[in-house]
């Protein structure tokens, strides 16, 4: 048989092809609409938890895009203390596959993709669920995905005020400085969660807790606000849903999948406070126009996204197509 080759794309390769923020948001919005229209195959995530003394775990995500004829698998580590070694907390590889032959097409560095597609899901969710005149953003957390949350949200809303905080003073100060430099506007670094979120139009919780802690309280949600929590370990007050008018998820099945300790609303799920009947919609159905998003200016809406494998595949596939056009990457012999 003729030789089979696949393309390997490093982070530097991806940086070299000029992918824009609009490209990433567009790819994610498009695949969310595909979800709403049933044009994806979306398998449950699984976890691999090594016996490493609680240092971290791996998530394995699998998905297929029917329209684009591409399948993919992502393995991503979640290691909270990696900053002590100068490493990202989340590092990933994505394998893209031809669904008609099973042939591997590419291995792609998925670290930036994981961060960027997460921020893009936050931004697309806000596009449909936040007030269109939202001008104040409060953001908790300074890890890699946090950067993309803020810059992609600001690309849609052009905030008048951005507030950020995180557990470590050095990380939040540096995060605020970098954001201010990038966005060309002041970013207020706050010392605690309450002063960061109180009265904000859009509230994002991307903390890195090791044990549940009720940092986000229901009294911080003002009429018309949108809360987007997605920390691996819950940072929400248990009865916070009492103050929420609508709950939107990325996928109800995924909300319940995996280790029962992981997920921003797992305590609410485990206590029976979040049920399928309590969920207004999945975000794909909203993006596809099958169900309404925000219906009035006073609704308090919560959007919980755990991470859709299909968004990883969509962004990786978009990057691969650009790389093929530019002949970027390293061709590896497969057989």
TrEMBL record:
Stored InterPro entries: NAD(P)-bd_dom_sf (IPR036291), ODC_Mu_crystall (IPR003462), ODC_N (IPR023401)
Record has Membrane as a keyword: no
Range of residues in the leader sequence: none
Keywords: Lyase
GO CC field: cytoplasm
Record carries keyword Lyase: yes
Enzyme Commission number(s): 4.3.1.12
Pfam families: OCD_Mu_crystall
GO molecular function, one term: ornithine cyclodeaminase activity
Protein name per its UniProtKB record: Ornithine cyclodeaminase
């Amino acid at each position: 048989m003729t030789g089979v080759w696949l393309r390997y794309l490093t982070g530097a390769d991806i940086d070299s092809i000029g992918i824009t923020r609009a490209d990433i948001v567009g790819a994610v919005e498009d695949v969310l609409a595909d979800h709403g229209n049933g044009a994806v195959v979306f398998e449950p995530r699984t976890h691999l938890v090594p016996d490493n003394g609680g240092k971290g775990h791996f998530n394995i995500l699998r998905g297929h895009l029917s329209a684009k004829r591409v399948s993919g698998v992502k393995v991503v580590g979640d290691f909270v203390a990696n900053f002590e070694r100068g490493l990202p907390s989340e590092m990933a590889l994505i394998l893209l596959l031809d669904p008609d032959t099973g042939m591997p097409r590419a291995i792609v560095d998925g670290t930036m993709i994981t961060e960027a597609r997460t921020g893009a899901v936050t931004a697309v969710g806000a596009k449909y669920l936040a007030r269109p005149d939202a001008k104040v953003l409060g953001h908790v957390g300074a890890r890699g995905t946090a950067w993309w949350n803020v810059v992609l949200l600001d690309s849609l809303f052009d905030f008048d005020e951005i507030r950020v905080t995180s557990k470590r003073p050095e990380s939040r100060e540096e995060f605020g400085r970098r954001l201010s430099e990038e966005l060309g506007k002041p970013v207020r670094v706050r010392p605690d969660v309450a002063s960061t979120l109180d009265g904000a139009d859009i509230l994002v919780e991307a903390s890195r807790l090791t044990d549940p802690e009720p940092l986000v309280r229901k009294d911080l949600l003002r009429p018309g606000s949108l809360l987007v929590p997605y920390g691996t370990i819950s940072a929400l007050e248990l009865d916070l849903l009492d103050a929420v008018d609508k709950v939107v998820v990325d996928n109800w099945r995924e909300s319940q999948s995996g280790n029962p300790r992981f997920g921003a609303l797992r305590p609410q799920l485990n206590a029976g406070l979040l049920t399928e009947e309590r969920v207004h919609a999945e975000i794909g159905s909203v993006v596809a126009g099958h169900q309404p998003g925000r219906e009035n200016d006073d609704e308090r809406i919560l959007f919980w996204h755990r991470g859709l494998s299909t968004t990883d595949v969509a962004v990786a596939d978009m990057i691969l197509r650009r790389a093929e056009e530019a002949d970027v990457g390293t061709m590896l012999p497969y057989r």
